[in-house]
Amino acid sequence: MSNNTQLDIRQIRATLQSKQGSEYWRCLEELAETEEFREFLHREFPREASVWDDSSMGRRQFLMLMGASLALAGLNACTKQPDEKIIPFVRSPEFVTPGVPLSFATAMVQGGFATGILVTSHMGRPTKIEGNPDHPASLGATDAFTQASILSLYDPDRSQVPLNRGLIGTRDKFLQALSQALQAKKASGGAGLRILTETVTSPTLGDQLARLLRQFPRARWHQYEPVSMDYAREGARIAFGRIVTTRYHLDKADVVLSLDSDFLTHGPGAVRYARDFAQKRKVAGGKQTMNRLYSIESSPTNVGAIADHRLSVRPHDVEALTRRIARGAGVLVETPQSGNHDTWLAALVQDLRTHQGSSVVIPGLYQPPAVHALAHAINERLGNVGKTVSYSEPVEIQPEQSQAESLRKLVSDIRDGQVDMLVILGGNPVYDAPADLDFGGALASVAFSVHLGLYADETAAECTWHLPQAHSLETWSDARAYDGTATILQPLITPLYAGVSSDHELLELMLGTAEPKSYDIVREFWRRHSGSRDFETFWRTSLNSGLVAGSTFPSRNVRVRMQEVQSLPPGRAVPGDELSLAFRPDPTVWDGRYANNGWLQELPKPLTTLTWDNAILVSPATAGRFDLQNESVVEIAYNGRKIAGPVWITPGHPDQTVTVHLGYGRTKAGRIGSKRGFNVHAIRTSDAPWSIAGIGLAKTGAKSRLAVTQHHHLMEGRNLVRSASLAEYVANPVFAKEHQPSAQPSLYPEHEYDGYAWGMSIDLSACTGCNACVVACQAENNIPIVGKDQVLAGREMHWIRIDRYYKGSLDDPEVVFQPVTCMHCENAPCEVVCPVAATVHDSEGLNVMVYNRCIGTRYCSNNCPYKVRRFNFLQYSTDEPTLAMQKNPEVTVRSRGVMEKCSYCVQRISAARIEAKKEGREIRDGEVVTACQAACPSQAIVFGNINDPDSRIAKLKADPLDYGLLTELNTKPRTSYLARVTNPHQEPGTSA
Amino acid sequence: MKVVSRASIVAFLLVLALLVWVGSSIYRAGYTTGVGVPREQPIPFSHEHHVSGLGISCEYCHVSVTEASFAGIPPTYTCMTCHSQIWNTSPMLAAVRTSAATGKPLTWIRVHDLPDFTYFNHSIHVNKGIGCETCHGPVDKMPLTWRVNTLFMSWCLECHRAPEKFIRPREEVFTMDWKPSGAEEGKDLVKKYGIAVKQLSDCSICHR
Amino acid sequence: MKREHGVNTVETGPLIGHGQTYGTITDKITSDVLERKTPRGMLFGLAIAFILTMVLFISIGWLMIKGVGIWGINIPVAWGFAIINLVWWIGIGHAGTLISAILLLLNQHWRNSINRFAEAMTLFAVGCAALFPLLHLGRPWVFYWIIPLPDTMALWPQFRSPLTWDVFAITTYFTVSFMFWFVGLVPDLATMRDTAKKKWMKIVYGVLAMGWRGSARHWHRYEMAYLLLAGLATPLVISVHSVISFDFSVSVLPGWHATIFPPYFVAGAIYSGFAMVLCLVIPVRKAYGLQDFVTDRHMDYMAKVMLATGLIVAYGYAMEAFFAWYSGNEFEKYMMFNRTQGPYGFIYWGLLLTNIAIPQLLWIGRIRKNMVWLFLISITINIGMWLERFVIVVTSLHRDFLPSSWDMYYPTIWDWATYIGTIGLFLCLMFLFIRLMPMISIFELRQLLPWKSR
Fold first, then answer.
1. Dihedral angle computed from the Cα positions of residues C91, C93, C97 and C98, in that order, rounded to the nearest 10 degrees
2. A601 φ, ψ to 5°?
3. Distance between CA C88 and CA A299 in Å, rounded?
């Protein structure tokens, strides 16, 4: 080897140091291809070289290895710390003070619907997402998806350049091609031109599409989304003769009936609904009343988990039950004779009738239109309309009767050769279109197809052109929330990757504008439609507050057409021996759009705690019938189509049916998301998107490992989650404190706190186990992901985990959630055993973990009764440059070999303390909000200063429901729980 | 034989001691800590000239020192406020002018570089009466800037364990060569500024 | 140096074979080192041991590159093989000190022929043990933070932590054992020096002998020093493993948090220590035909010591079980249930078999005299003691307070490589010692001679 091919780590580092952001990444790519690099690789890490050569994951592996070896280099003191550079502004922008983060209001859009958010930006780097307290769909909280979307922004696998038939193209080339294609269209009035979008609520986009359709009258606009609200819209049309959007007001509802709906965790408005629901649920503070939740579900959900009464039935049986409830409520529909669950239903109906006007029936997106129509009818009969439920104009710009229909029309037109130009704005139909349509096959025959998307995904690969779309934090746009409230999305960072960055720009180009800018398009639209005299003020206030004042849709008076509803023919009754299947969006990667988001992949799915995979969920009984064990691979056949995947036995799952989740089996998702799980779209057809009956199930004999984070599901009779019914609680308010040992002495002197004493309280009645806190914590505290293998080895890193226990019979168990963080014990077992005092008590009662002092004996973890400590067994924190940009600069990034754990967001406490001290005042109650607390939709988590008797936390700690975990060990935890109170109906036979 | 063995034992112990001593003295030497070593900068900026010569206040350039964790390094335009008028042809300042013209920022070498796991906040120190001088030394006498303190943790703790020895009135933080008026003054100021001394040695004050 | 000899030779047979004299002893033992050329069998053994040592070094290298994640440990089982092996090796070490120090103070002269051997073993075992506390650290390169040094962080170690106590316990133990072993060697090194033919050998042994001339004054000083060191070493036999046991008993974990630990750890240590001595002595004795110096009676004694300590250990297990039930504490009760019926139950039963059941054969005199039986039983006991530590460390950790955090621990290839590797290192050192040093204390052996035959 000649000298210039002699490459070493220092050179590589040097080369990379000079590069920034995406450039850095690309540089690493190029570097990876050079001959010298491979030489170096084989010389230094022969073992790794193979990994490197045959898989792209090898690159990460290698970086990890390099990190480790460099860490070792730190051993010899001869290496001096490298010079750090300071690069000041040339002209400093006003309002930016180096080191002081800023916060901007915008929105996160999923399935077309917006949730208002505030994004924290450090020196131009957005690092954390919080809910927007002023926004009706958020009220300050967020869901897990919103929290994780910040990671997608920095995803190094995002599409970075325009692609022309898979080859790198340029913007100009594309523009030429586009204008040529459009020239032809001008003459023909747009014949053969089709636009395919996801659900659209963006007023600007709607306006642009309208203009486009005016310019090309014969063009068509189609909408498709794998998780669509088709059934809801169709149900509304049946009931009211027109499509309306339904809105629930759970803060007024005392009795809630969920018909196979997961309204608390998924769908538009879920975050808001969770808040309103929890308000009526919490009894802490001496309240003696709470709402009651009935859930009829065909697949275990969080709603069923916290329901007071849960009925687990097969998907097709829900309608029959609904009919009987409807009849009970006074809707004269024909009902099946069969009478199982009689007492249950009787109690329910009686409860609904006695709560006329303060009850609500919520149909799930997965249930057929009839159920929705019936639900509307019941609500009207019970006089709930206008109180707990209201209707408004559809929020969608152009509500499709049925998106499946719309897509089928598109495909058939393509097959008839009527389409020669197709523009796909977002979405990934090639992956998630119904199997019977074979969208991919059809797409190939379209002469000129364009795909605009975040990733060069399955659809991009089939299109003539792919354009890298800007992330919603990178561009201007707008969208409406579940109640119609409009938000103007503003970018926090210029697009990391060039291209035609947004759907607005692409459409504007098609409309013939040269060099359009999203900013101008959105601003221009609102200038015309704001209807305010002083536009500048309107614009500024709308951006500041994160919503357009007065844009909420007024509720409309609509009446149910009882005749139509009552004459609805009953759905097909599925014979008991038929095996049915329910499709569900995945609780963490949704329809697959988040497949390449590491945080969501590693997020334990509620109820199963499964990570990195989807599985075939079956009940213990069904598993017994087919002789299935966990992880045994089965093949499911339906109408000649097949899928195969590993089984996970799920207590509480209805018998004779299985559940599978969308979003897996991606082939072009990226390094994180590709080749994980199995693709259920292979058997999902346009006529039955959510449930099918009469499937065949066969054992293949193979096994496939599944990485779950919780292996044991019973409390072993230990008093961990304490719960009682409302009646019991009223009779004996201190039930949670019983069998609690009185204060024991300690050998060590008590700590004294003259200043603050921080503490946390978690309300188990309110926790829905939605996981928002887990991801929020991960984003705030730079918590790495570890990958499936490491989860299998039991090394996941989450600082807050949600324990889930089953009580009662395995076939119909009661499910309880218990979020567990570091308890910050007064007598912390971890502190006394650390040989180097790397984990110690501070004067405000925090049990602080000092990473830079930790030598990694792991004794603290062994001695922690709560096992909340996490260890960097390997170099987990990646040095991928774009991902590094997401890191919170206020929190140390931990390296291999050190222990870490929940810090009560000490960085937020410090910030507040410093501000307070500078202003010479005390920290106000509620000034310090931990990441988990901020994210929690049901506000189950409260944090504050226990020493301040007027603080919320102090009051909660004094509440009779307050209890500590494992207090018999005399650890005196600072995090305590409010015991779980449920509100079951008194009728016999209705016990959940 | 006897002598040899005796000698070898003694020698062994001596060598051991020597190694330890050499090691620790290298670790604490200016070579490693950078104490008293003037740093080359892209522009030979002289604090001496600007501070004691022209009497420019620290805050004029380090604007955010009172409200942010980072004291702030002046943008090129701050230099240009004067240097567009005076010394506007000096070759020494060519880099500044090009920066202003091209918009390419200057790149300075950090003199006081704390480890990344240590979170230092300028504003709270300045607001609680710790003078620039206390850590950065007599900057007004530095033609090129250097460190006067090791930035060892032990050094930080000297003050965090006994702030009264170093604290000064808020008005005096930017003063150079300040002398306490009396022995009691420190203690009074600590009380006056409400500094919780016990808390200052919490790990969580600097490490997260 | 006149001492009454043969006092305790009333029991079964002599401590030294007939027809042995000063001369014969000296010739036999020195020649094994100086003239006799290395036997083939030994070379073979050494080769294997050396290969295993290389395996150790490789796994340490990989460990340094990747981190402790290459092992099977996780949360909740954050300690695995590393700590098991540490305790196991330290335990083995104990026999040496016990034999040399305590038996010396108790005037048990039968020890003379095996103490040198046992001391060497102690040294090497402690050496192997000392590796693990370093290797199991997440960041081994800052291990010195455990040692109280006036560093630039103005911080001391945390003296409440048993791990800090370990540092002192182990280092002291190693130092004293080394001194004891070396001082004991000095007179023999002198003998070697004098009998050595080659010049360089004379010089090497000479330097090591530190100018020993065997004058009355030397002997007097020597006896003083040796007794003093014995006095120092004796408490260490008790203290070291007690301190090690604190690592567990000081914690809150069911299965660790037990007052019985210190005594039953010490007993266990001596138990395994003697087992290891036998494992080594029996073949060596055969290979080198040392039956005259290490007689059947030695074997018998050692077997009896094993039997006794084994019973103490058994008592320890019984007490653990008893208090689990007697305490009425739900966690303690479950701990015992999990040990016997949990996923690692088979290991607990294996432990009872190898550590308690089988050794009872030692009640039978013929078995104590039968070298094959004795050898096999000793091996079994060593395995059993290792299993005991596995039960304590892993089985207690993998199911503690919150069922939600329960998980399993599976050792990886690297866990095994490191463990087997240390065994290789140990044997390697042992072979070299046998080859290069007088493995039996010549002068002390001479003392065993009845007066007439001197």
1. 40
2. -60, -40
3. 51
CB contact at 8 A, A304 and A815: yes
Sheet with strand A389-392: strands edge to edge: A245-248, A389-392, A555-556
Number of Cβ pairs < 8 A linking chain B and chain C:
29
Contact, C149 vs C164, CB < 8 A? no
Report DSSP state, residue B147. B
Tokens of A659: 């559940």
Residue ranges of domains in chain C, CATH in brackets: 15-147+155-446 (1.20.1630.10)
Cβ neighbours around A561 below 10 Å, total: 16
Compute the distance between CA of residue B199 and CA of residue B158 in angstroms, rounded to an integer. 14
Look at residue A771 and give its three-state secondary structure: coil
Quickly state the pLDDT bin for C447 (edges 50, 70, 90). low
Rounded-to-integer distance, Cα A65 and Cα A59, Å: 10
Q: Is A637 helix (H, G, I), strand (E, B) or coil?
A: strand
3-state secondary structure of A363: strand
Instruction: State whether B28 and C207 contact (CB < 8 Å).
Output: no
**Residues in a beta bridge with A126:** A121
What span, in angstroms and rounded, lies between the C-alpha atoms of A389 and A361?
9
Calculate the average pLDDT of chain B.
88
Shortest Cα–Cα distance, C153 to chain B (Å):
5
pTM over 0.90: no
Q: Kindly list the distances between the CA atom of residue A881 and the CA atoms of A19, A28, A49, A64, A204, in Å, as whole numbers in the listed order.
A: 10, 10, 22, 13, 34
- The residues, ordered by sequence, that sit 6+ positions from A426 with a Cβ below 8 Å of its Cβ are A197, A198, A452, A453, A469, A503
Nearest-Å Rg of the Cα atoms of chain B is: 23
Confidence of residue A73 (pLDDT cuts 50, 70, 90): very low
Q: What is the dihedral of CA C134, C136, C139, C144, to 10 degrees?
A: -20
In three-state secondary structure terms, C373 is: helix
Asked if C250's CB is within 8 angstroms of A718's CB, the reply is no
* DSSP state at residue B35: B
The CA distance from A390 to A269, in Å, is 14
Provide the CA A195 distance to its chain's centre, in angstroms: 28
The separation between CA A132 and the C-alpha centre of its own chain, rounded to angstroms, equals 17
* Distance, CA of A9 to chain centre: 39
Neighbour count for residue A103 (Cβ, 10 Å): 13
Is residue C74 within 8 A of residue A793, CB to CB? The reply is yes
Instruction: Show residues of chain B in contact with C153, CB under 8 Å.
Output: 152-154
Token pair for residue C380?
């079994």
Residues from chain C contacting residue B5 (CB–CB below 8 Å): 207, 209-211
Cα separations in angstroms, A536 against A540, A806, B206? 6, 56, 44
Q: Report percent pLDDT > 90 for chain A.
A: 65
Cβ burial, residue A792 (10 Å; 0-12/13-18/19+): middle
Q: Which residue of A has its CA nearest to C147?
A: A836
Name chain C contacts of A69, Cβ cutoff 8 Å: 65
DSSP A314: -
pLDDT digits (tens, 9 = 90+) for A917-951: 999 899 999 999 999 999 999 999 999 999 999 99
C-alpha distances in Å from residue A61, one per residue of A49, A56, A207, A787: 10, 9, 48, 11
- How does pLDDT run across A256-297, given as a tens digit for each residue? 999 999 999 998 999 999 999 999 999 988 888 999 999 999
CB-CB under 8 Å, B76 with A89: yes
- A401 within 8 A of A428, measured Cβ to Cβ: no
Rounded Cα distance between C228 and A616, Å, is: 72
